[in-house]
């Protein structure tokens, strides 16, 4: 499904990613873990087309997304939930969601998709007329995920979805991510809560200083001494 091959990316003149190889299969959750500054968010933005790679390929079902304009990447079935949520604060919850369905194919079925999102996150239905600025942090994260789902993606990129959330909201977030996968959507998960991420995902990648240091099943990563020392601090 998603294939990343030999991806190099720069921030200005500073290289941030070196030769990254990564795969995500159909209806699979894959975690990317690593210490702060490892390049995890850079990887997400490069896959989404928001940062143009210098070398390498991002392939989704055989289509090379590195040649696609950023605003058209979602038409290939990829959506992003960015770090920090970035909802439209002065717009209503409903309008934020509908904005996610601007793609032609998504517009045709937006009512059905909206109903699915509101079943996943009932609080968004309860607060549909409220401005997004009045939501709690957890509710804004639900809104950011719901907006991405309105695109009808086949794969969802999630950058630190639990960042700044209370434990009870984090629990709800991870339950929702599993429900999204069960509905047939693949998830590439960049997450600060390493234990929870590895519990939820089937496979994972350890990123360090812009390079893939280790790849394997989530259990293999959890049991690896390097992961326990450099990321978990054990």
Overall mean pLDDT score? Answer: 91
Low-confidence stretches: none
CATH-assigned homologous superfamily of the largest domain: P-loop containing nucleotide triphosphate hydrolases
- Into which percent range does the helicity of residues fall? 25-40%
Main pleated-sheet profile: 6 strands, mixed
Oligomer: single chain
Structural class: alpha/beta
Task: Give me the strand/helix succession.
Answer: EEEHEEEHHHHHEHEHEEHH
Query: What is the general shape?
Result: globular
Give the distance, in angstroms, between the N- and C-terminal Cα atoms.
Answer: 34 Å
Percentage of residues in DSSP E strands? 25-35%
List the strand order in the largest sheet: 6-7-8-3-9-10
Topology-level CATH name of the largest domain:
Rossmann fold
Radius of gyration: 17 Å
Judging by the overall fold, what is the CATH architecture of the largest domain? 3-Layer(aba) Sandwich
Tell me how many strands there are: 10
Number of continuous helical runs: 10
Q: Structurally, how many domains make up the residues?
A: 2
CATH class of the largest domain: Alpha Beta
Features:
234 residues; alpha/beta; Rossmann fold; 2 domains; six-stranded mixed beta sheet; four-stranded antiparallel beta sheet; 10 strands; globular
């Amino acid at each position: 499904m998603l294939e990343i091959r030999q991806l190099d990316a720069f921030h200005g003149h500073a290289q941030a990613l070196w030769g990254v190889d990564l795969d995500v299969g159909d209806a699979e959750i894959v975690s990317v873990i690593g210490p702060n500054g490892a390049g995890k968010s850079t990887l997400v933005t490069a896959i989404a087309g928001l940062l143009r790679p210098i070398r390498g390929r991002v392939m989704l079902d055989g289509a090379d997304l590195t040649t696609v304009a950023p605003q058209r990447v979602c038409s290939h079935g990829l959506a992003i939930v960015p770090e920090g949520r970035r909802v439209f604060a002065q717009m209503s919850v409903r309008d934020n969601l509908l904005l996610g369905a601007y793609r032609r194919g998504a517009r045709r079925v937006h009512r059905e998709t909206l109903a699915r999102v509101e079943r996943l996150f009932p609080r968004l239905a309860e607060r549909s007329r409220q401005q997004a600025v009045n939501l709690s942090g957890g509710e804004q994260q639900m809104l950011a995920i719901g907006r991405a789902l309105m695109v009808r993606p086949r794969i969802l990129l999630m950058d630190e979805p639990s960042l700044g959330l209370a434990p009870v909201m984090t629990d709800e977030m991870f339950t929702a991510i599993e429900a999204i996968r069960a509905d047939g959507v693949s998830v590439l998960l960049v997450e600060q809560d390493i234990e929870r991420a590895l519990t939820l995902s089937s496979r994972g990648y350890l990123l360090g200083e812009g390079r893939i240091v280790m790849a394997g099943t989530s259990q293999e990563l959890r049991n690896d001494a390097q992961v326990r020392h450099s990321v978990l601090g054990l």
